[in-house]
Structure formats: C-alpha cells, structure tokens
Specification:
Elements: E1 6-10, H1 16-25, E2 31-35, H2 47-62, E3 68-71, H3 74-79, H4 81-85, E4 91-92, H5 95-105, E5 110-115, H6 117-122, H7 124-132, E6 137-142, H8 144-151, H9 160-176, E7 180-183, H10 192-199, E8 204-207, H11 208-222, E9 233-237, H12 244-252, E10 260-262
Length: 268
C-alpha cells in the first residue's frame, strides 16, 4: 500500500478528463492536479519550450510527494517522453497506452489521429503504432480549434460552432475510411458525441485519458502501491483561478466544491 497521491498535469484544464477517469477507476486514490493555465497552450510552442515546461510541471508535482505522475498533456507526452522516463517515481504520458489500444481496436488497419499541432508534428502516436503494426495506414490532423471550443463550453451536441468545426475536421478521416480514431488531446473527449455522430458508430474512438488512467491503475497494482484513501482532489493552476470551477465541472462531469490554489513555477 502507498497512500501518497497521484500527480496529474496538463497545459490547461483538459487533463481533468484524465482525472475523471482516474476517479472512476481508482476511487480510493488521492489526486493532485496541476493545470499550467498561465502558459496554455503548449501545442503551439517550440520543442525546447515544451521540454522546459514539462520539467517544471513534473518538479512541482514531485515537491508534493506524489507516487506517480501522469502527463495528461498529449503535447508533452509526444515531445518529451524522455523527461518522464528519468523521474524518480513512475511516470507515463498518453502516447504508448493509447497507441496500444488503437492497434488492438482497428480491424481495417486504418487509424486516425487528432491532436495539437505539436503532437501531430512529432508523429509520436504514429511511430508508436507502426512499431506495433507496420501495415497500418495512419491519417493525422491537428485540430487546434477544438481546444478553444471545449474551453468555451461549446460542447452541446447541437452547438452550431462545434458541429460545423467537427464536420470540417473529420472530413479527411471519412475519406480515409478509418475505423479507429485517437483523441490525442485530453480536451477532445468532450466532443466525442459529436465526433462519433459525424463518423458513425462503426468508428471506434480511443480516449487517451481513459486508457492512460487504466495503465496507471495496472502499474500501481503491479507495484502493490494502491492506496486506501478517501479519493480526494487538490487543484493547482498557474494563473488566476477565476472561472476554474465552471470549466472544471465541464471536464469532470460533476460539481466541484474543492478549492483551487494559484501557484508560480518561477524560481525566486
């Protein structure tokens, strides 16, 4: 048993979708979430900037004595996996577990990927899948507008802006006849109902947050490091927390009564 918390970070609040899955799968685990809202988005930054941010985010969580770190940020997972591999506690990103799930799910060997510009540019999901099955045909597309749509709360299945944007972004995947689509950014599962409707029920959507949460559970179980806590959450952000509760409730799918604390990662 290890009652230390699990640490989760993302460039903004999208990683709360991974927290939501963690709470469903591991209800007895305490979680510390850090959203780097002062520097969002990561997806449009340079590789070195993303790596610097990732190191600072991880150190913040290590200073909170976490036992495990999840980089719920697809961009960090794609650009800086080596940083996660060198931490003093187990740490995973969303790429490998998601790639494994997609390869298992596809029947026609045509897989789509949506993510931030940096994630798609890195080809991380594609490389991970092709290592598992070189016969795959992969179609990848950056969908930066999805992040803004979700963070503005325009996620109703009938929202005109969301529906039109999904239709535009999904067109290449319909042409490519994919039967599996990786939602490679933690914001994107909130648009899953619209995406599913546009692509049809024959296409399997892979929620990177969910499969990563399941991988976390498996690793902790293997290490006999599961906790017997109350399943509480502590929230930290790097910018003014006004509006956090409303946005967090969208991602978590529940009322948020916990307080959120603003912190600075800048060294004195």
């Amino acid at each position: 048993m290890d009652n230390r918390p699990i640490g989760v970070f993302d460039s903004g609040l999208g990683g709360l979708t991974a927290v939501r899955r963690l709470q469903e799968i591991l209800p007895n685990e305490d979680i510390i979430y850090f959203g780097d809202t002062g520097r969002v988005p990561y997806g449009t930054r340079s590789e070195q900037t993303i790596r610097n941010y990732a190191q600072e985010d991880c150190q913040f969580l290590l200073d909170k004595n976490v036992k495990f770190i999840i980089a719920a940020c697809g961009t960090v997972s794609s650009v800086a996996p080596d940083i996660l591999a060198t931490l003093p506690v187990p740490a995973i990103g969303v790429v490998q577990a998601t790639a494994n799930a997609a390869v298992k799910a596809t029947e026609n060997k045509r897989v789509g990927i949506i993510g931030t510009a940096a994630t798609v540019r890195s080809r991380s999901f594609e490389k991970a899948m092709l290592e598992l099955d070189a016969a795959l045909t992969v179609t990848a597309l950056a969908c930066p507008m999805f992040v803004s749509i979700v963070e503005n709360g325009w996620i109703d299945p009938n929202d005109e802006v969301a529906v039109a944007t999904v239709r535009r972004y999904m067109a290449p995947f319909k042409t490519a006849a994919v039967d599996t689509l990786i939602l490679g950014c933690t914001h994107f599962p909130l648009l899953a109902p619209i995406i599913q409707r546009e692509l049809g029920d024959s296409v399997t959507l892979i929620d990177s947050g969910e499969v990563t949460a399941r991988r976390c559970a498996a690793v902790l179980s293997e290490r006999d490091a599961l906790a017997q806590n109350n399943g509480g959450c502590r929230f930290f952000v790097s910018d003014q927390p006004e509006g956090f509760t409303l946005t967090a409730e969208i991602f978590l799918g529940r009322d948020v009564r916990e307080e959120v604390e603003m912190v600075s990662l800048q060294k004195g």
